[in-house]
Design a protein that fits this description.
33% helix; 171 residues; single chain; Nuclear Transport Factor 2, Chain: A; two-stranded antiparallel ribbon
Length: 171
């Protein structure tokens, strides 16, 4: 009896003494995914539009895009095609501007990207339907995947956003 009492006391003391990690949701902090000065992804506790976050951006007129982000609409389309060809949903996710998307919604959208990446690519078109001509200035892209063998053709529309010299997909 005494032994079990001592064991219970030791377990309680250990549980209190060992700190456990606190994730951002529990502590009330939000993590913001921003675009850095050279087009790289930057995670911050501050909103992207704040002065501290804006201070990391290059002055207007300087090229800010690097290999870290698509510098043109054509490069964005090429990266979408390459990611789908590799069946790489993570590469597709890296082309998305995730700002303002919560955890549950992000999980659902990642599932959609996985499904999109698993099917053969048929076309990437400007939302007007012209595969190449209007796509350089498109506000949205339509990605068509599928085949006769895999549940037919499916379409997914993405918005296209130019920010800090990078082209991003939006939902």
């Amino acid at each position: 009896m005494v032994r079990s009492f001592l064991l219970a006391g030791w377990m309680l003391a250990t549980a209190i003494a060992v700190p456990r990690p606190v994730d951002a949701q529990e502590s009330g902090q939000r993590v913001h995914r921003c675009v850095g000065a050279r087009g790289e992804i930057v995670f911050s506790g501050l909103p992207c539009a704040t002065e501290a976050a804006a201070a990391t951006q290059l002055p207007v007129g300087e090229a800010s895009a690097t290999a870290a982000c698509p510098a043109s609409s054509a490069e964005l389309r090429q990266r979408i095609g390459a990611a789908i060809a590799r069946k790489d949903a993570n590469a597709l996710a890296g082309l998305i501007r995730w700002q303002g998307i919560g955890g549950g919604e992000a999980g659902s959208r990642l599932g959609q990207l996985r499904q999109l990446a698993q099917r053969p690519l048929l076309a990437i078109e400007a939302d007007g339907g012209e595969p190449d001509a209007a796509a350089s200035a498109a506000d949205s892209l339509r990605v068509r995947t599928g085949s006769n063998e895999q549940d037919g053709v499916r379409e997914h529309r993405f918005g296209v956003l130019l920010e800090s010299g990078c082209y991003w997909l939006t939902w």
